[in-house]
Design goal:
The protein is built from 7 helices and 15 strands. By secondary structure, it is α+β, with helices and mostly antiparallel strands. It has one domain (about 50-280): Glutamine Phosphoribosylpyrophosphate, subunit 1, domain 1 (4-Layer Sandwich), CATH 3.60.20. The strands form 3 sheets. Strands 3, 6, 7, 8, 9, 10, 11 and 12 form an 8-stranded antiparallel sheet that branches. Strands 13-4-5-14-15 form a 5-stranded antiparallel sheet, covered by helices on one side. It starts with a strand and ends with a helix.
């Protein structure tokens, strides 16, 4: 492999200074394929006891979209982590929530964020929203062999389409299956992970397409509370340890922004207080 000398350190291969592809994943495939998630050595026979993360919800609102996730990761019947970060901003107008095998999911979303940044630097413009979701589908498909070995990792993509005709309906939600199938969720809400059945049931009753951002945030936290109430792998608000859901909102004005911990805590505490009041009324 041809190398180019550098003034301050070891020489880098000439390919590092080439712009033959705007895809970082394609660059790795040509230069260092062992670094790609799908090229890792598969585990041997038998189950792999690796931490898993759940649950992720996404909700559109008038003028934007949000994604939220609980913080618990489990390993079998044990709590592996109480404060895992499952929701990540990946570029100015996109975020991804991850469920499934925790280590692989985190690796996938970090590589995806680098992929989007690399494309924009090489091409001078960001990928379109459809291009972003298709790129993520390709990366999920590349992990299929490992998923079939029991280490599945699934993302839930949310983005604001700056090219949309109606800004009030520009928030979009896209889900995936382990084969790389891509599905746009047109109901305006969706959930993935072990608590998704309960979260979607709550969203079905609470969702309002014309809601403002504040109401949509409350709806997302309410649905995560319901998921934690019935799914042991989903963590509810932890008032003692001060661990609360992670929330990212995306609008035209601010782009993708993670809500401050104080704001997430305030919403979660209000939800807990409301449920406690309901329980008190039910006993009287």
């Amino acid at each position: 492999m041809e190398h180019t000398s550098g003034p301050t350190g070891p020489a880098l291969p000439a390919a590092f200074f080439s712009s033959t592809t705007s895809s970082f994943a394609e660059f790795l495939r040509m230069q260092a394929p062992d670094l790609l998630p799908g090229r890792r050595q598969l585990p041997g026979a038998g189950p792999v006891d690796a931490p898993h993360g759940t649950t992720i919800v996404a909700v559109t609102f008038a003028g934007g979209v949000l994604v939220a996730g609980d913080r618990r990761a489990t390993s079998g019947n044990l709590i592996a982590s109480r404060d895992m970060e499952k929701v990540h901003v990946v570029d100015a107008y996109s975020a991804v929530g991850i469920a499934g095998s925790a280590g692989i999911a985190l690796e996938l979303v970090r590589l995806y964020a680098v992929e989007l940044a690399h494309y924009e630097k090489i091409e001078g413009v960001p990928l379109s929203l459809d291009g972003k979701t298709n790129k993520l589908a390709t990366m999920v498909k590349g992990n299929l062999d490992v998923a079939m070995a029991g280490l599945a990792a699934l993302p839930l993509f949310v983005g604001y389409d700056i090219e949309a005709d109606d800004p009030k309906r520009a928030g979009r939600i896209v889900s995936y299956d382990v084969t790389g199938g891509r599905y746009e969720e047109r109901a305006g809400y969706h959930a993935i992970g072990s608590g998704s059945l309960f979260a979607r049931s709550a969203l079905k009753k609470l969702y309002d397409p014309d809601a403002d951002e504040e109401t949509a945030v409350r709806t997302a936290v309410e649905s995560l509370y319901d998921a934690a109430d019935d799914d042991s792998a989903t963590g509810g608000p932890d008032l003692v340890r001060r661990v609360f859901p992670t929330l990212v909102t995306i609008t035209a004005e601010r782009g993708a922004v993670r809500l401050p911990d104080e704001q997430a805590a305030a919403v979660a505490e209000a939800v807990v207080a409301g449920r406690a009041e309901q329980a008190t009324r039910g006993r009287t």
